[in-house]
Amino acid sequence: MRLSMKQITIQKLVTTKATTLWKVFSLVMFTSLYSSQSAAQITSAKGTSSNNSISLSATSIKPIQWRVIIAPSRFSQVAVRSQTGIFFDSSFKVVLGRIDSPIVRQKLSFKGQPTSFSLRENLRIPQTVVKKARSLGLNQIIFQRVFFDSPDNTEFPSNILFQLSSGTIAGQLNIERIQVEFENQRTSLIIPRASQLNARAIIKYKGTGLFQYRWEIASPPSTKSNPIFFPLIVKRQYLLAGDQATIQSPDLPTDLNGNYLIRLMVTSPEIGLTLKVLRYSVKAQLGVSSSKPIKLINLLQPQADDALVKATEFAWHTIEGSKAYQLELYSRPPMSSNMNNQQKDKPITGVLMPANTTRLKLSGNSFNHLSRNQTYYWRVIALSDSGEIVGQSEFRRIKF
Q1: This model's pTM is above 0.85
Q2: What CATH architecture is 41-163?
Q3: CA 162 to mean position of chain CA atoms
């Protein structure tokens, strides 16, 4: 059956109207979808960790769970992401460090229903962040992430607090003891010219904190009368959790003959301790003075085979030309009477003192080098202002 011209015209009008209506409907649906995506936004974000205490002695890794909630206006695919994290002090005024560690999560969201995103990370807290925080006297740090949603790109910050202390290693730095000595554990030495020499300090402490100090030296000729100390080096060192640390001096000068004094000065924290001043003498040659004979030093006390106790006082007569005396204890007397050969048998311990001192009691540090129920041999030598031996006593036996 053939359609009339009128029927054909009506059919075309209906088809055109249907097409127009479909285009309008599609435009409305696209606009609705676009507006719903733009309307999605983050309403809250929160981070939690099962352990908020940071180790002060090693890099900490903390598990964190972030919970981010968005409010979508329609059904759509939404992503939540955070690119970087920043460490702050508790007032958010100081940036302690930052990490570039992205985290992201995607899921479908439904119109009118808040959608929760759970993002997990294992946060690595560098020791550089911890050290900077402790150097500023902080006990807490804040880690912050800023979360963005996609496609709208709204943002929302979230913070988590960490403590810089724990029950075993927390606390202000407290110095209990500092033992200053040369590397061979002696506090006085006679060494040849151009020798390599360093001092060290063994520090016993509790807690953690910044340790500030300087090594100072007094050189000849000031050591002949009133020593004048000059700084060798000024340093800062952060003492982490533990109970002992060792610091070493720079190389000590040994290019000029004479007597030297070395001391450690602690500027922070307050220690309330009196530290040992180290002494060493530099001479061109260990042995006999080339121009003067060696004089005999007469010993006064203790007598041969006396017992050595803390109250024992060593005493001797002074001799002319001496600028310093050194009391020495040996496990056995040197076999040779030649001073050059005697230097090969090193004393177990000894004390160097100025020429105006002719009486002495051993310190606790000297006793630390001795063993109970042993016999030792002691003597006194006299040194010139150039460090040459100008006098010596006989050896006497003493029992400890």
Answers
A1: no
A2: Sandwich (2.60)
A3: 21
